[in-house]
What does this fold into?
Amino acid sequence: MGPYDRTGFPWAQSVLVFVPYKKRQACARESDTLRLFHSSSSRFAPTLSVSSSASPPACSRSSAHEAPGRRDGGEASGDGREEDGAKVGLPALDISFAFPQATPASIFPPSASDYYQLDDLLTTGEQSIRKKVRAIMEKEIAPIMTVYWEKAEFPFHAIPKLSTLGVAGGTIKGYGCPGLSITASAVTMAEIARVDASCSTFVLVHSSLAMVTIALCGSEVQKQKYLPPLAQLTAIGCWALTEPNHGSDASSLITTATKVPGGWHIDGQKRWIGNSTFADVLLVLARNADTKQLNGFIVRKGAPGLKATKIENKIGLRMVQNGDIVFNKVFVPEEDRLPGVNSFQDISKVLAISRVMVAWQPIGISMGVFDVCHRYLKERKQFGAPLAAFQLNQEKLVRMLGNIQAMLLVGWRLCKLYESGKMTPGHASLGKGWTSRMSREVVSLGRELLGGNGILADFLVAKAFCDLEPIYSYEGTYDINSLVTGREITGIASFKPAALPKARL
Ligand SMILES: Cc1cc2nc3c(=O)[nH]c(=O)nc-3n(C[C@H](O)[C@H](O)[C@H](O)COP(=O)(O)OP(=O)(O)OC[C@H]3O[C@@H](n4cnc5c(N)ncnc54)[C@H](O)[C@@H]3O)c2cc1C
It folds into this structure.
């Protein structure tokens, strides 16, 4: 059975025939002779109503397929065309109508990826928050994520829903924070990433970087003032370390903090800072102009001299608003200097937690991709059989599943090492680097399995494929994390080249 047979119209394939623009306009006026629309009860049963002719005129064949399921809900009357050529043709069909054989990710599939039953390794509290986060993400975020990802906009209206996840502040105890175990924090990070990696990055930056820095390095007054609204997501945080000239070698950063009466002046530039275009609270790392050591500051939104500009044209994590920040003599009162940041070493305890969390993002992304593929392969038929019936496809699916089980166990063990106080920087780096590498194989297999739909954000896999790339590179690239572990196991640091030939410098 071919894809068009479901309409019951042998002539339906004629939609592929090119119809000139002027003729289509004329056809659009005839569109009331034939209306094809979605049944609200079933995606798979488009209803047909023919008002006059059983054999529609040739021009109606195109308009018949233009009316239903349009994203803008408009009539098939030529909307979406612009004479200047900026936009040619009609708006896209709704994906459920254009490709009715498989369910898009807006209706998220049930979890099928937890093959070795991770739940058995979790406490009942960890299991229940995992379940709760999964349900909220599937219900509230899955239906809107493709649209916002495409627009590269953050869904601000969804922040109250993200607040109900109850994860902001993660392991922090008191100050209105949930005081979760690191394992609960990690599995919920994966559940968020399973549905949408941008949302997980939003939470990661806000919670595991900005809030954890205040909790670990802030004064008691700062904790009481800033943490409660951040925990409720009524205030949003960001965390600024990376600079245009200092990415992997961030510890060499050159943004300066100069002592002035009553506080500090911050001067310099930051790059890639997630949430920074709208954050209420910016955690900024800068070099003390006197001591040359690293200091930390809480900069408030709207401070004179502060300018954050959105980085455009990203191919991954498109909902996340990453910014370039320029600081021009931004005054920070003394009360907003973090007393606990006096060297780069002081933020390594923050990075220890955030790296564990980032290690769980590729796990979640892989779970979501597997779950979508698992459903898709059973729904989509080719050569008279579901795609799931082909041996090659089963092998790919099983390879993905194997990677996920291994990642879950490594991620879980990393949490246990952290909880027992035994986790080293090398452990955390191996976890983050390795899960992002394994996940690259999962998302690329998933992309293959979905064929053409593997490049459409509507079926999650293409979106996840792109979202994984920045995660592979942030919070220490795969290479830098490998070098951290390499240094630990060999005792030899190889971040800097042994020698550069002078002639080439
Ligand atoms: C989407 C996104 C969100 C981000 N969010 C934040 C944020 O919120 N806050 C923040 O502070 N930063 C953020 N970052 C910055 C991120 O941490 C950096 O991009 C990352 O550290 C890598 O730095 P770089 O991009 O400058 O790459 P580079 O340092 O220029 O590296 C380029 C390549 O060279 C390799 N390389 C570099 N040095 C070595 C070496 N010694 N040995 C071997 N290979 C090496 C790297 O592995 C990489 O492959 C974000 C980045 C992205 C893409």
In short: The chain has four domains: 3-84+93-98, 118-231, 237-344, 347-490. Residues 66 and 76 are 6 Å apart (CA to CA). DSSP finds 13 helices and 14 strands in the chain. Residues 1-78 have pLDDT under 50 and may be disordered.
